[in-house]
Amino acid sequence: MKIKTSSDYMSSLQSINPVIYYKGEKIKDVTLHPATAPHVRAAAMTYALASQAEHHDLATATSHLTGRKISRFTHVHQNVEDLLKKVKLLRILGQKTGTCFQRCVGFDGINAVYSVVYEVDEKLGTDYLERFKQWLTYIQDENLMVVGAMTDPKGDRSKNPSEQPDPDQFVRVVERRNDGIVVRGAKLHMTGAVNSHEILIMPTMAMDEKSKDYAFVGAIPVDAPGIIMVFGRQAGDDRRDKLETIDVGKPRFGSVGGEAMIIFDDVFIPNERVFLDGETEFTASIVYRFAAHHRSNYGACKTGLMDVLTGAVSYLCQIQGAAKGSHVRDKVTEMIHLSETLYSSSIACSAEGVPTESGAYMVDTMLANVCKQNVTRFHFEVARLAVDLAGGFIATLPSEHDLKSDEVGHLVKKYFTGVADIPVEERIKIGRLIEAMTGGTALVESMHGAGSPQAQRIMIFREGDLTKKVSLAKALAGIPSVKPKQEAS
Amino acid sequence: MKIKTSSDYMSSLQSINPVIYYKGEKIKDVTLHPATAPHVRAAAMTYALASQAEHHDLATATSHLTGRKISRFTHVHQNVEDLLKKVKLLRILGQKTGTCFQRCVGFDGINAVYSVVYEVDEKLGTDYLERFKQWLTYIQDENLMVVGAMTDPKGDRSKNPSEQPDPDQFVRVVERRNDGIVVRGAKLHMTGAVNSHEILIMPTMAMDEKSKDYAFVGAIPVDAPGIIMVFGRQAGDDRRDKLETIDVGKPRFGSVGGEAMIIFDDVFIPNERVFLDGETEFTASIVYRFAAHHRSNYGACKTGLMDVLTGAVSYLCQIQGAAKGSHVRDKVTEMIHLSETLYSSSIACSAEGVPTESGAYMVDTMLANVCKQNVTRFHFEVARLAVDLAGGFIATLPSEHDLKSDEVGHLVKKYFTGVADIPVEERIKIGRLIEAMTGGTALVESMHGAGSPQAQRIMIFREGDLTKKVSLAKALAGIPSVKPKQEAS
Amino acid sequence: MKIKTSSDYMSSLQSINPVIYYKGEKIKDVTLHPATAPHVRAAAMTYALASQAEHHDLATATSHLTGRKISRFTHVHQNVEDLLKKVKLLRILGQKTGTCFQRCVGFDGINAVYSVVYEVDEKLGTDYLERFKQWLTYIQDENLMVVGAMTDPKGDRSKNPSEQPDPDQFVRVVERRNDGIVVRGAKLHMTGAVNSHEILIMPTMAMDEKSKDYAFVGAIPVDAPGIIMVFGRQAGDDRRDKLETIDVGKPRFGSVGGEAMIIFDDVFIPNERVFLDGETEFTASIVYRFAAHHRSNYGACKTGLMDVLTGAVSYLCQIQGAAKGSHVRDKVTEMIHLSETLYSSSIACSAEGVPTESGAYMVDTMLANVCKQNVTRFHFEVARLAVDLAGGFIATLPSEHDLKSDEVGHLVKKYFTGVADIPVEERIKIGRLIEAMTGGTALVESMHGAGSPQAQRIMIFREGDLTKKVSLAKALAGIPSVKPKQEAS
Amino acid sequence: MKIKTSSDYMSSLQSINPVIYYKGEKIKDVTLHPATAPHVRAAAMTYALASQAEHHDLATATSHLTGRKISRFTHVHQNVEDLLKKVKLLRILGQKTGTCFQRCVGFDGINAVYSVVYEVDEKLGTDYLERFKQWLTYIQDENLMVVGAMTDPKGDRSKNPSEQPDPDQFVRVVERRNDGIVVRGAKLHMTGAVNSHEILIMPTMAMDEKSKDYAFVGAIPVDAPGIIMVFGRQAGDDRRDKLETIDVGKPRFGSVGGEAMIIFDDVFIPNERVFLDGETEFTASIVYRFAAHHRSNYGACKTGLMDVLTGAVSYLCQIQGAAKGSHVRDKVTEMIHLSETLYSSSIACSAEGVPTESGAYMVDTMLANVCKQNVTRFHFEVARLAVDLAGGFIATLPSEHDLKSDEVGHLVKKYFTGVADIPVEERIKIGRLIEAMTGGTALVESMHGAGSPQAQRIMIFREGDLTKKVSLAKALAGIPSVKPKQEAS
Question: Is the ipTM of this complex over 0.90?
Answer without folding.
Answer: yes
